[in-house]
């Protein structure tokens, strides 16, 4: 979208040459004949997502019982074939599949690790739309990666579940094309025992209905969403709804033990979302919000329309970070994980901008504080190529934010802020790459910025001082 002048950044020695290639995009993977590929083509996460089709919509009808920890229901996935398909995969971790149907006809299926391989009765033709329904049940098992990602995905709690899926935990609770390169809209129909609340993305449709001791919550996210941003967090929650000063609907929910934080969460969320819309351009979704669960994850996640805070009352800076992700990460999603600085560098820079806005120190002072520490391990980690074995490295966050500050100093505020707005606007609801950001920065500023980006994103050493 308007980035025809794209030039590949000159890659540093550590950046594999494939970093300059087009990102994985929906439905593109290496395929064998008419079998959809088991991965979407992300070189660092080869089995994540799938090839051969593009999901348009997920319709998830699920019930969860916290006492047995059992999840049961069905997922209907509406997709469009990107090649002829005699078989294709969905990602699914654990759980038991009882039936698969393609366009209403029973299909055969098999399981192999986290791939659900589906063979429809009829070959699907390239370009055709099709609907797959998967009936399944079982006790979801979260992903657990001690070295790097911690515990994520569907995590049972005493009264429900804490559901945060970055980078590839959506498959712990629904069959999906589990990679941000394939975004889709979502409908959720979630049934829980009466007295509990089920929280998903987007807005609630109608009022929750209770029959025979069970309540069903219907949520709809009508804007495209990456699978890792989907949630069905459930449990005992205190909820406050209303609108921001600018009229945007707000949904705030906190676990009982955080009831004292509900009003602050509600108020700050509205205020910060409104402020970011003056800095980054119009808010991309139809509501904003936040959820504090009592599961001590130790991290927050920018779930679309409803960031979640795992077991803590967030400081305004953290709320500012997660809400900045609604533009950078959620509306604009990366096409492969290596480009994660486009999410985390931007959201961390937003923390610095929030400090600047609230008179708590300038972005420049934050930049200098990091720059002065010549021994910081981030100098050995070029954030332009986030590593699968250390994905959420502080380098991706802080050196990523420093990259934006170095850019701001180089091109000035008069170009920098319009650039950020143009970036959010040009790729709204889409997928983005580092190459595209560099191209737009060069176009907006009229400067050759390859050296700057190469030094900040791709070299394993501290760049020369700015100015
Ligand atoms: N994107 C989140 C944030 O910075 C971090 C997610 C960490 N995920 C994980 N599996 N540990 O706001
Ligand atoms: Zn973040």
Automatic annotation (TrEMBL):
Gene3D superfamilies named in the record: Neutral Protease Domain 2 (1.10.390.10), tricorn interacting facor f3 domain (2.60.40.1730)
Sorted keywords for this record are: Aminopeptidase, Hydrolase, Metal-binding, Metalloprotease, Protease, Zinc
Q: Where is the Aminopeptidase N-like N-terminal domain?
A: 57-229
**Region Disordered: what ranges?**
23-52
**Required cofactors, per record?**
Zn(2+)
What residue stretches are annotated with the Peptidase M1 membrane alanine aminopeptidase domain?
318-456
The organism's place on the tree of life at top rank: Bacteria
Q: Where is the composition biased (Low complexity)?
A: 23-37
Q: Which reaction does it catalyse?
A: Release of an N-terminal amino acid, Xaa-|-Yaa- from a peptide, amide or arylamide. Xaa is preferably Ala, but may be most amino acids including Pro (slow action). When a terminal hydrophobic residue is followed by a prolyl residue, the two may be released as an intact Xaa-Pro dipeptide
Protein EC: 3.4.11.2
Report the GO molecular function annotations.
Answer: aminopeptidase activity
- Entry's family note: Belongs to the peptidase M1 family.
Q: What is this protein called?
A: Aminopeptidase N
User: Which species is this UniProt entry from?
Assistant: Microbispora maris
- Recall the taxonomic lineage recorded for the source organism: Bacteria, Bacillati, Actinomycetota, Actinomycetes, Streptosporangiales
């Amino acid at each position: 979208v308007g980035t025809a002048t794209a030039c590949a950044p000159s890659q540093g020695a550590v950046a594999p040459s494939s970093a300059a290639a087009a990102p994985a995009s929906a439905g593109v993977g290496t395929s064998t004949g008419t079998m959809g590929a088991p991965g979407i083509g992300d070189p660092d996460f080869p089995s994540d997502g799938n090839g051969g089709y593009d999901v348009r919509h997920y319709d998830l009808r699920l019930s969860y019982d916290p006492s047995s920890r059992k999840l049961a229901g069905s997922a209907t996935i509406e997709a469009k074939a990107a090649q002829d398909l005699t078989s294709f995969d969905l990602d699914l971790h654990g759980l038991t599949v009882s039936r698969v149907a393609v366009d209403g006809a029973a299909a055969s299926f098999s399981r192999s690790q986290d791939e659900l391989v589906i063979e429809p009765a009829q070959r699907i033709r390239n370009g055709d739309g099709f609907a797959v329904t998967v009936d399944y049940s079982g006790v979801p098992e979260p992903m657990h990666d001690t070295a790097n990602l911690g515990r994520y995905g569907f995590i049972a709690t005493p009264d429900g579940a804490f559901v945060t899926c970055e980078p590839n935990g959506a498959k712990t609770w629904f069959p999906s094309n589990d990679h941000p390169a394939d975004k889709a809209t979502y409908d959720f129909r979630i049934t829980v025992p009466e007295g509990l609340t089920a929280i998903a993305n987007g807005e609630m449709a109608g009022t929750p209905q209770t029959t025979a001791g069970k309540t069903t919550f219907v949520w709809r996210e009508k804007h495209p969403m990456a699978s890792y941003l989907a949630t069905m967090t459930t449990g005992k929650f205190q909820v406050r709804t209303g609108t921001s000063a600018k009229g945007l609907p707000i949904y705030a929910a906190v676990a009982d033990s955080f009831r004292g934080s509900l009003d602050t969460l509600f108020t700050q969320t509205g205020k910060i979302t409104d402020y970011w819309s003056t800095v980054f351009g119009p808010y991309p979704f139809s509501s904003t919000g936040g959820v504090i669960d009592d599961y001590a994850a130790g991290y927050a996640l920018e779930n679309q329309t409803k960031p979640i805070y795992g077991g803590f009352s967030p400081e305004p800076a953290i709320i500012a970070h997660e809400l900045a992700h609604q533009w950078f990460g959620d509306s604009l999603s990366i096409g492969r994980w290596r480009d994660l600085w486009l999410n985390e560098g931007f959201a961390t820079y937003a923390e610095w901008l929030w400090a600047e806005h609230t008179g708590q120190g300038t972005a420049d002072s934050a930049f200098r504080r990091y720059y002065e520490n010549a021994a910081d391990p981030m100098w050995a980690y070029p954030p332009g190529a986030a590593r699968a074995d250390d994905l959420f490295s502080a380098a991706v966050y802080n050196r990523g934010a420093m990259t934006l500050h170095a850019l701001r100093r180089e091109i000035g505020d008069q170009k920098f802020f319009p650039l950020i707005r143009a970036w959010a606007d040009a790729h709204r609801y889409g997928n983005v790459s580092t190459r595209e950001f560099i191209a737009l920065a060069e176009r907006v500023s009229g400067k050759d910025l390859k050296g700057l980006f190469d030094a900040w994103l791709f070299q394993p050493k501290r760049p020369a001082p700015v100015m």
